Amino acid sequence: MKFSLGSLRLNSLRSRLMLLVALAITPIAVMTLVNGVREREQAVKASEENLRRLTRLAAANEAQSIEAARQILVDLASVPDLLGPKERCRALLADVLDRNEGYVNFGLIQLNGDVSCSAVPLLHPVNLGDRSHFKRAISERRFIAGDYVFGRVIRKHTINLTYPVINHDGQVVAVVFAAMDLADLDTFVNDISLPPGSVLTTADARGQIISRRPEPERWLGTAISQPMLEGMAHANGRSLVLKGDDGVERLHAFAHVGAPQLTDYTVSIGIPTDTITYTARHDQLMSLVALAATTMLALLAAWLAGDILIVQRVRKLMDTARSIAAGKLDARTGIEYGHEEIGNLAKALDEMAEALQKKETARSLAERELRAADQRKDEFLAMLAHELRNPLAPISTGAHLLKLLHSDSAQITQTCAIIARQVEHMTSLVDDLLDVSRVTRGLVSLSTQALDLKKVVEDAAEQIRPLVNARRHRVVIDLPQEPAIVKGDHKRLVQVVANLLGNATKYTPEGGHIELRLAREDDDYVISVSDDGIGMESSLVERVFDLFTQAERTPDRSQGGLGLGLALAKSLVELHGGSVRAYSAGLGKGSIFTVRLPRHEEHAATQAPALPSIERRGAPAAPLRILLVDDNQDAAHTLQLFLEAAGHAVQVAHRAAEGLELARAFRPQVCLLDIGLPDFDGNELARRLRLTPQAAGATLVAMTGYGRQQDREASALAGFDHYLVKPVNTVQLTQLLATVRVPQTAALNRPPL
């Protein structure tokens, strides 16, 4: 028998048999756990009751000590010598101190706070007017047990117990006090057997420890934890489980020391919870061990029975199924058929394998035929592309020759430019045709920039004009007055609109009407092309953008086309983040195609401004030293030529590390940095340039294709002064450079390289 963890999965038959055994034992396991929890609760409850009793005993013991001190002070307050000559007063207090253990001093405090008499000689005058117990004894005219103090005279941990001295007229004339040594406040605990790790703590009203067992000297005068303070505030409430400074969890009980008129002290005793529940946990552990042993024996029996009766036969079924999945359709189970479930399953599997074997033969034949058809399609596309290229070459050559022979004619020159542009556009369409799958899957490379859709519509209309004129269509173009700015590839968008117009001309009879409208809707621009042509059935509308889909043709195929235009248009629009839709009311009722593109906020740069226009906008007062870092060599070289034509000194680097080294030698005044660099990004380069003395004061300009708000914020944090989104508007860049001001004498002071 081979054991594996995978065999224990609950979706196997043997594991389900074991699950049944486990379910049968589950009630016993639950009862064992419940009984263990109850035993622990009973242990905690019994310990909690004993702990409360012990805590009350400790509080009573401390209250007894405080009450004894109160009685001593009451007696002292009635002795006439206390207010007599100082020598008699000192002798009286010294005698009382000698007769009472656990005290470190007795004294008399005048109403101004001066200690006028003390059992312990005073080396210098002492004033206790700031002590709260002194003030309360006068104002409340009763015994006061003060908070923890470290004695000024005796230099020990004490609590001061005070009582007012009242004359025959009922006026407070002084306050007598006793300083109790905290080291012996809870000596009775030594006679009580507490579990190891137990803690007794007494705290005053401020939460300072006045008694602590064990290690009293370490803890006296320190503050208790906030949870402990909250527990002492409700001393008559339930016990609490708190974690101490040593990380041990203890069950704490709380009790007030005496009546509220006697003290504000609270006693707490904490016993480790592990000690309380040890016996219950030990008994529960033994029960769980016995239960685990019983469970394992039962599961082992179920495992062995399941292996013999179920698993071995099911494994044959699995091996046969895997063989069939691997292509061995002649595989069979070899299990004897019977009237039980596994035998019936084996019979069904063998019958399935036989049926699949027959279907595979038919499928292989169909696949060979499909591959042949696909190969013929590819050959057709290649032949069509070849045949389309043949007339393009003489057209292009003839256009250039015509321009050369009639260069003085503006009309001919313009016509030649149109021909050349259309030849270039047709060539790009032929290139797309050679790889239709690449186009329809959105893998066309786009060169996006901010552009005006009105110019796109005009160029598309110019491209399709010969076909419109040939079919004598009446075309109405409705454009808005303001620019319609989007971000996209001009050539590809012209291709989209031209395909829609071309589709309208193909399926609109001669003399028909075509309307092209451009309008803004919310945050989008919508281009709609409508016609009064042959229209479409609803079934065709749903698949009109599929590849090679066409409406019904006339016998002479006068419409032309391969059914690629609309599929290509849909793919290109989606690459621009837009959408395209088709609508038709039915056959003979025309069609409407709409393209929706997101509006772009920046102004379009329809043409690269010539150098003279840059100069008219204003050049900087002095030429600048400009460091240009961009890994796109063509883009960097083009921008370098533009900047040098404007009079600037330009150094180019294609890696961030190279740019950093160049900055140390070149001392640039402006740094134009790409963000996506091969070694480390432009943000990191900006940080390093700010730390470089030669470029720390330079104006840093980010040039990147990332335009999100978080990208702008990251560049600002990196130290960039300006942020330009590619493609960079040269007019905007020129205006930006014009704002950079440097001393005339240092403008082109190029450091030695």
UniProtKB/TrEMBL annotation:
Q: Which residues carry this modification: 4-aspartylphosphate?
A: 674
- Using the record's annotation, list all stretches that form the Histidine kinase domain: 383-601
Q: Which reaction does it catalyse?
A: ATP + protein L-histidine = ADP + protein N-phospho-L-histidine
Q: In Gene Ontology terms, what is one molecular function of this protein?
A: ATP binding
Q: What is its EC number?
A: 2.7.13.3
Is the keyword Secreted assigned to this protein? no
Could you tell me the keywords of this UniProt record? ATP-binding, Coiled coil, Kinase, Membrane, Nucleotide-binding, Phosphoprotein, Transferase, Transmembrane, Transmembrane helix
Where does it localize? Membrane
Give coiled-coil spans as residue ranges: 37-64, 345-376
Q: Which residues form the HAMP domain?
A: 308-361
UniProt name for this protein: histidine kinase
